[in-house]
Write a structure and sequence with these properties.
Aminopeptidase, nine-stranded mixed sheet, globular
Length: 476
């Protein structure tokens, strides 16, 4: 069997241990006892019912799985392996098991990648560690490619263990690699990645992440400087005003008096322009951004708006505070958008409006060399530059109803000193259009692609375009 034999036939699921314990233990028994010669004690983990289990099903049978042990603080294992005793979370991937006929299909690689990436995004662990018994120590070479380093060799519970640690810096550096692997393999197999946050919500007996664990999961500002981004974001705000000018008039917003929050507001220019809309007369306006620099700039520039620094994952607003929540160019930067949607649902009033605007990289049209740059950046980027393709389904699972969607095609066929909008086509000059992609140049892993794309763009008269899409939801 090879990877292409699995296309459309695999279902990935986070497993409730009580419901799936027989299947989990049977798979472990076949792999560890029948095939590898361990005794039956090896198939059990103390506390199995409280851990995270990700399984792959083929024609209804569990054929591959891995267990993720999340530890808060310290315990007997941490002490026994002489691991750092931190206050935060630790991740231990363990008990990866797969039927032998599925080896070589990259299925085990997919579930390992998916489990690691999901847990890291939700829990933000201080470090991850793996313990390999002697017979499995060759796997250390594989794990070292993801930043795991041999920390010690210890005797524990009757086994000689090779202990590998992936520290916090290595976790951050490896996230992109795990994301790429997940994207590539899941696309080949054509499998949907299940939501860990939804699984945790349904299984409260599992160790739950603290609400601030996901605070840093807006990945946008991790790499880009405020000084470099401010001019682009101000230009983006003006562009957004042109695109949304007529569309806003078609939305049935709640009647005033009402409260509107712009989350991920950046420097605040667009929210200030919304404040002038007759349709929103009588509204109170608030803006939130994760960046202190952005909020400081907004406070100094637009004093009559309530500005607040904070995270979309933990806004610290009271429940049902807002009638309208606006989020532009934000969802693409989130590692766990489903957690963000839960928080937005909490602070939105019943029947309230969630107004989302984002670029969709999958809509780019242009020369191959520029498209390659866009695609490479999409793959390397830690968020999801194509999130609007799947957001309606994700939002529906969080009790949001899609009531309107629209798009504007932005092209480089305009004049340099003006912006024109007609029939959902926004025309920019060539320089202004290319400035939309300037942020890509700041990422080392795609700089070579950017340089080739930029050289082609300015040495030819090529046409390029990309869609900025709007999706409007109502809280059910």
């Amino acid at each position: 069997m090879n990877i292409h034999d699995l296309k459309g036939k695999i279902i990935l699921k986070w497993l409730n241990y009580k419901e799936h314990s027989k299947q989990i233990l049977e798979l472990r028994r076949k792999v560890f006892v029948e095939h590898q010669g361990f005794d039956m004690s090896f198939i059990n983990i103390e506390g199995d019912e409280n851990y995270l289990h990700l399984g792959a099903f083929f024609e209804g049978q569990l054929v591959s799985m891995i267990t993720g042990v999340v530890i808060k603080g310290t315990n007997k294992l941490i002490k026994g392996l002489n691991l750092p005793e931190t206050l935060g979370y630790k991740l231990q991937p363990t008990k990866r098991a797969e039927l032998k006929e599925f080896r070589g299909t990259r299925l085990a690689e997919l579930i390992s990648t998916c489990m690691w990436k999901s847990i890291v995004a939700v829990y933000q662990p201080d470090y991850s560690f793996i313990e390999l018994i002697e017979v499995h120590k060759k796997l250390g070479l594989y794990y070292s490619s993801f930043g795991y380093k041999l920390d010690s060799i210890v005797e524990f519970d009757g086994f000689k263990l090779n202990v590998y640690i992936q520290n916090n810096d290595d976790i951050n550096n490896s996230y992109k690699k795990f994301k790429r692997l997940e994207d590539v393999i899941s696309t080949i197999i054509s499998v949907k990645i299940p939501s860990l946050s939804n699984h945790l919500e349904k299984n409260p007996e599992i160790l739950q992440p603290e609400k601030n664990a996901s605070t840093n999961n807006n990945l946008y500002l991790n790499m880009l400087s405020f000084q470099d981004e401010l001019p682009r974001l101000l230009a983006q705000g003006r562009l957004l005003g042109v695109i949304q000018k007529n569309l806003i008039e078609t939305i049935d917003f709640p009647k005033a008096p009402a409260n509107l929050l712009d989350i991920g507001c950046g420097p605040g220019l667009y929210l200030f322009s919304l404040r002038k809309k007759k349709k929103l007369k009588g509204y109170k306006f608030s803006g939130m951004d994760i960046s202190n620099d952005m909020i400081s700039f907004a406070r100094l520039s637009y004093r009559k708006i309530a500005w607040k620094q904070g995270s979309i994952y933990n806004t610290k607003y009271d429940a049902e505070t807002f009638d309208v929540i606006h989020a532009s160019f934000l969802m693409i930067h989130l590692a766990t958008p489903e957690i963000a949607l839960k928080e937005l649902f909490r602070i939105l009033k019943p029947g309230g409006i969630l107004y989302i605007v984002d670029v969709n990289d999958s809509t780019f049209e242009g020369p191959k060399v520029i498209k390659k740059m866009i695609n490479k950046h999409t793959v390397y980027y830690e968020g999801n530059r194509n999130i609007l393709n799947t957001l309606p389904e994700l939002a529906k699972s969080q009790s949001f109803d899609l009531i309107k969607k629209s798009f504007a095609t932005v092209s480089n066929l305009g004049f340099e000193n003006e912006i024109t909008m007609k029939d959902s086509v926004l025309k920019l000059g060539r320089m202004k259009m290319w400035a939309m992609f300037a942020f890509i140049s700041q990422r080392e892993d795609v700089q070579s692609y950017y340089q080739k794309a930029e050289q082609h763009y300015f040495s030819t008269e090529c046409e390029i375009s990309i869609q900025i899409q709007t999706q409007v939801y109502k809280k059910i």
